[in-house]
Amino acid sequence: MSSITVEPCTFALFGALGDLALRKLFPALYQLDRAGLLHDNTRILALAREPGDALTHLAHIDSQLRQYVGDKEIEDQAIGRFLARLSYLHVDFLKTDDYVALAEQAGTAQRLIAYFATPAAVYGAICENLSRVGLTENTRVVLEKPIGSDLESSRKVNDAVAQFFPENRIYRIDHYLGKDTVQNLIALRFANSLFETQWNQRYISHVEITVAEKVGIEGRWGYFDKAGQLRDMIQNHLLQLLCLIAMDPPADLSADSIRDEKVKVLKALAPITPEGLTTQVVRGQYIAGYSEGQSVPGYLEEENSNTQSDTETFVALRADIRNWRWAGVPFYLRTGKRMPQKLSQIVIHFKEPSHYIFAPEQRLQIGNKLIIRLQPDEGISLRVMTKDQGLDKGMQLRSGPLQLNFSDTYHSARVPDAYERLLLEVMRGNQNLFVRKDEIEAAWTWCDQLIAGWKKSGDAPKPYAAGSWGPMSSIALITRDGRSWYGDI
Ligand code: BG6
User: Fold this and answer.
1) How far apart are CA 152 and CA 6, in angstroms?
2) I want to staple 115 with a disulfide (CB 3.0 to 4.6 A). Which of 110, 142, 201, 320 is the partner?
3) Which residues form the Glucose-6-phosphate dehydrogenase C-terminal domain (predicted)?
């Protein structure tokens, strides 16, 4: 069915009854199977700590799968084939004895892929137990985020895993890297000489990266409150997007060539100074407001919340990259929960022409913009200046789009979920879309100094109404530089 060859494997999913596994991982595996991308001999072992009868757990996985995949994509034959690959095993992740049964089921005839959808605190123990029962040889391990909550704790987790697995068999997930449109950033930049020649401080004035979510905390208060939006979104997803926009062209498409370039960007990020903390960074926390016309509670009134919390649900900041390509080009990053819409978008603002010959009152609109829409309505649009039509218009300028909407242009049936791509690449042994240890560490180093600065200042996050674009000071952050967030309504 498919032209891609994927070797058979035993896919052992730790934390198989957790939210991530049920919502994302089983549906992604099912979609791969349905697309003919799983080898006939591939087996899936669902491993969880929950006691109880295996058949009951399997029935639960089945019913959740149908719910998350949706009626249109559930096919009886595909579901039957998928469930036939699946078995359930009760494993207490900390007990070596429980791994004996896993070793028997997994065998050594084909490669083991061990996916850790569990808290990072147990990654080391799982690795050690896999090693005790002889399951490390040739095994690939997949680590979910968050890996630690700062540089020190992430090093601990990475070091614990590294005792048993070499870096080239460790796959650290950042699911944004699996999104089709995020991979398109590489194609857009390096397969089009048109852009790459302009991609520097000579032609670009600034860059905006917005990842806005409409949802609030959705029952995850316990986890989220310890993390906050900086750790949950900026440290990984937004910094990865920034790297893909800012990195130099890699020598080739190999995982290490790309990752070497990304690390250089992370290391070139200017630390935020104590003064910068007040002018360059805004933390916010949502208060009650409206989402889709319905009133919704504030962060401190969410289920299981603690009314004292000063965890941020919104961050906007200006990052500067200290290198020749980007000197003097600010990258404005913004991400928050309970924003007016779900939107992930990158806007590259080009400088105005070096010699301006049109009417002075039109000067403000001059400047091309490249808008890369990651979700929803994936596509790319380039705003270009043209002359308005009509005899009475003279040389009146107008900004219009050169538009590429992926689903209209390529008539793609469906955009695969990021996890489908990522799981497929693990099975194919391609580390391109996974984060290397030094990348994570460089990202934490930059975020840690920010968190330390916040702690020292003791400032509480600024309130913003649910359903708004964040605190007023996030608008001031960019208007102070004579700019505005693109497209805010
Ligand atoms: C996760 C964060 O990594 O990404 C969540 O932990 C966030 O808080 C999610 O909601 C957003 O992902 P997506 O793919 O919906 O943009």
Assistant:
1) 37
2) 142
3) 187-485
Task: Indicate yes or no: pTM above 0.70.
Answer: yes
Which ligand 1 atom is at minimum distance from the Cα of 176?
Answer: 14
Residue 217, both tokens = 């905390």
Cα(154)–Cα(94) distance, rounded to whole angstroms?
20
Best mutation site among 179, 217, 233, 339 for ligand 1, i.e. most ligand atoms within 8 A of its Cβ? 233
Measure the CA–CA gap between 427 and 11, rounded to whole angstroms.
Answer: 9
Mean pLDDT of 347-376: 87
Q: How many CA atoms lie within 13 A of 387 on its CB side?
A: 9
Instruction: Assign 100 a pLDDT band (cuts: 50, 70, 90).
Output: very high
Q: Closest Cα to atom 14, ligand 1: which residue? A: 176
Structure tokens at 216: 């609030």
CB burial of 2-37 (b: ≥16 within 10 Å; e: otherwise) equals eeeebeebbbbbbbbbbebbbebbbbbbbbbbbeeb
Q: Which residues are within 8 A (CB) of 471 and not within 5 positions of it... i.e. 6 or more apart?
A: 282, 284, 314, 462, 463, 464
Residue 255 CA, ligand 1 centroid: distance in Å: 24
Nearest by Cα to 185 from 207, 158, 156: 207
Beta-bridge partner residues of 463? 285
Is ligand 1 within 6 A of the CB of residue 439?
no
Q: Which residue is associated with the tokens 């009133």? A: 295
pLDDT at 2 over 70: no
Q: How far is the CA of 232 from the centre of ligand 1 (A)?
A: 8
Pair 292, 466: CB distance under 8 Å: no
Q: Which has the closest alpha carbon to 366: 381, 348, 386?
A: 386
Q: Is the CB of 417 under 6 A from ligand 1?
A: no
The single residue of 237, 349, 355, 411 carrying the catalytic annotation is: 237
Strands (E), 145-229: 170-172, 204-212
Consult the annotation and say whether 150 binds a ligand. no
